[in-house]
Amino acid sequence: MLPLIRRFLGVLEIGEDDLTPCADRIGTPVSLEPVTDPTVNAVAGPASGSAQEARFPSFPSLPGVYSLIFLYTEPLSTLTGAFAAWFFPGATWFHHQLVPSFDPVPVALNNVRDKMAIWQLANCYFLLSLCSWFVLRSARDYLRHDLPSQEHIVRSLLVPLAIVDVTHVIVTLMAMPQDVIRKPLEWNGTTHGNITFTMFLFLTRIAWFAGVGRTVHHTGGPKVKET
To answer: Which residues form the DUF7704 domain (predicted)?
Structure first.
């Protein structure tokens, strides 16, 4: 009986060579550090930056408030004036609003010449809107690596606009009745647009010319190319 038991135990014995592979696997330390892929940050970083730049492209010559006013507000305001005279409320309403009055808006203009003059004025508003919209965006998008030239184009647009600001206010005040000029609290939206808002645009252009709140890249002299 005892020899049988010894023979049975001998079958169950595990040799030292059989335990070695298991011991090696058990003794191998397991790393719990998170696995990072360096390509993730390398791709995500520039992509997110490019997306932000695409939505908000930089415009060094018109930073911050200047861009908001000259690139968006002014073109939108002149475009609104053009469509108001052309379509709704229409030429009759626009003609009546040129001089503040408590009289009701007439049914129609007195003659065809008045309507033609109002529509042509609206076309000038439309022209100003398109010039500001396309010229400034072209300078921003195609001269982003040539800041002196970019600023020169912006200046070439703002100078004539500043001159027209002054002449527009002058001719408006010359034609406006004196009793209306003395009562600015009774001015309507069109009169404030022709005088108040135009002077605001003029003063903003003067601040831009003076370099207030921006970096000046062009001093007015010719651009010298080094050889």
So the answer is: 61-213
Distinct helix (H) and strand (E) counts, the chain: 11, 0
- What is the rounded end-to-end Cα distance, in angstroms, of the chain? 109
Tell me the per-residue pLDDT of 65-121, one tens digit each, with 9 for 90 and over.
999 999 999 999 999 999 999 999 999 999 999 999 999 999 999 899 999 999 999
Q: Is the peptide bond before 60 cis (omega within 30 degrees of 0)?
A: no
Q: Whole-angstrom Cα distance, residue 82 to residue 91? A: 10
Question: Do 218 and 152 meet the contact criterion of CB atoms below 8 Å apart?
Answer: yes
Does some domain include residue 157?
yes
Structural domain includes residue 124: yes
Q: What is the C-alpha to C-alpha distance for residues 98 and 122, in angstroms, rounded to an integer?
A: 13
The domain tally of the chain equals: 1
Per-residue pLDDT at 45? 43
161 close to 202: Cβ distance less than 8 angstroms: no
